[in-house]
Design a protein that fits this description.
By secondary structure, the protein is mainly α. The chain has 14 helices and four strands. It starts with 6 loop residues before the first helix and ends in a 5-residue tail after the last helix.
Length: about 300
C-alpha cells in the first residue's frame, strides 16, 4: 500500500529537496537500533535486508531519501515530514487533524508501513520496502525541521555553513554541523558515532533518559480513536485503504517540534551556524535525537516482532 501524493503536496517537493539527517545521520540511527534489537526483530531485519544492506538497518536507512528523487518513488516525498502550522519561536505544536488532514505526511506514513511490515500476505519485497521506510521515517521524525512548516522547514532561511552558501535546514542536518563534529570527534564514521551513542545509552548520560524515550511505544494505539481514509496508489491494486493514525509518531513529532521554539529558530542569520556558538548548542540536541530515534526504532521493531520493547 502506497499513499497518494496530493497536488498540494507536489507543489512543495522542490523546496523540500534537502535530506533528513543526511545519509550519515540516518545510517547512525540505524546502527544504533541494531544494538538494541530483540531476537525475532533482529532475525527479520537480517533476513529481510540481506547482503545488499549487510543485514543492517544502518546501510538501509538512507534508501528512502535516495529513491524519492526517482520517478517510481516520487509519490513518497511528502511522507518525510509534517508541516506543523504553528508559530515558532513563540509557540510550537503539531496536530494530526490540522497538519496532516490529507494523510500525506510522516505521521500517516509511519502508521502505514508499521502495518505493512508485519503483514505476511505481502511479498518479501513489499515487507522489505516497509522496513526501509520505517528505518528512515523514525529517523526523520526526530529532526526538528522535518516537523515544521515555517520557511519550508528552514529550507528558505539562507545561511553560510563553514563558508559555503546553503540554508538553515542543511546546516543543521545534512552536510553541515553533523559532518563537522563527525570528522573532529568520530573518525568521520557513522559506525564509530553509533557505537559511542549506544554506549552512552547503555552506561552513560542517556541511560537515565531511556524510560522517558519509550514512554510511548505502542505500535497500535490510535490518535483519539479516530480513523482517516487514505486513497491508496499502488498501480490501482488497492483503493480507499484505511490508515489509523498512531499516537506515538504524534508524540515524537511534538517532542522534536518543541526544539524549534527552544533552539532551532534562535538562529539570527548574523553568524555561521556551523562554526559559531550555534553549532555548540546544536550538537548535543542532534546527538540526543539521533540516539533517541535509534533506540525508539529498535523498540518499535521489538514490539512488532517480539511483543515488547525488550528494553
Amino acid at each position: 500500500m502506497r499513499l497518494t501524493v496530493t497536488l498540494a503536496a507536489c507543489s512543495i517537493l522542490a523546496a523540500r529537496s534537502v535530506r533528513g539527517w543526511g545519509a550519515i545521520g540516518h545510517e547512525t540511527v540505524g546502527y544504533v537500533a541494531m544494538k538494541f534489537l530483540s531476537p525475532k526483530a533482529l532475525s527479520f531485519v537480517q533476513s529481510s535486508l540481506g547482503s545488499e544492506y549487510s543485514e543492517s538497518l544502518g546501510p538501509a536507512a538512507p534508501w528512502a531519501d535516495d529513491v524519492r528523487f526517482e520517478a517510481a518513488f516520487s509519490w513518497s516525498a511528502p511522507f518525510h515530514f509534517v508541516d506543523a502550522e504553528d508559530n515558532p519561536p513563540t509557540s510550537c505544536s503539531v496536530e494530526q487533524m490540522r497538519d496532516c488532514s490529507s494523510g500525506t505526511c510522516i505521521l500517516s506514513a509511519i502508521a502505514n508501513y508499521t502495518a505493512r511490515v508485519v503483514d505476511t500476505s505481502l511479498s518479501t519485497e513489499q515487507r522489505q520496502e516497509a522496513l526501509k521506510f520505517i528505518d528512515h521515517f523514525i529517523g526523520d521524525i526526530g529532526q526538528p525541521l522535518h516537523v515544521e512548516a515555517v520557511e519550508v522547514g528552514g529550507n528558505d532561511i539562507n545561511a553560510v555553513c563553514n563558508g559555503e552558501r546553503t540554508n538553515l535546514h542543511a546546516c543543521i542536518i545534512d552536510s553541515g554541523i553533523i559532518n563537522i563534529f563527525l570528522k573532529a570527534q568520530y573518525s568521520n564514521s557513522a559506525i564509530v558515532w553509533a557505537n559511542a551513542l549506544a554506549q552512552r545509552i547503555q552506561t552513560g548520560e542517556f541511560k537515565s533518559l531511556t524510560s522517558t524515550w519509550l514512554s510511548c511505544s505502542s505500535t497500535t494505539e490510535p490518535v483519539n480513536n479516530r480513523r482517516r481514509s487514505i486513497e491508496d496508489d499502488i498501480n490501482g491494486l488497492v483503493s480507499d485503504a484505511t490508515i489509523t493514525p498512531l499516537e506515538c509518531p504524534l508524540v515524537w513529532a511534538r517532542e522534536s517540534n518543541a526544539y524549534d521554539c527552544s533552539f532551532v529558530f534562535s538562529y539570527t542569520g548574523f553568524s555561521d551556524p556551523c562554526t559559531s556558538s550555534y553549532a555548540t548548542g546544536a550538537q548535543p540536541i542532534i546527538e540526543e535525537q539521533i540516539a533517541k530515534q535509534g533506540y525508539r526504532l529498535a523498540a518499535w521493531l521489538n514490539v512488532l516482532f517480539d511483543g515488547s520493547t525488550g528494553l
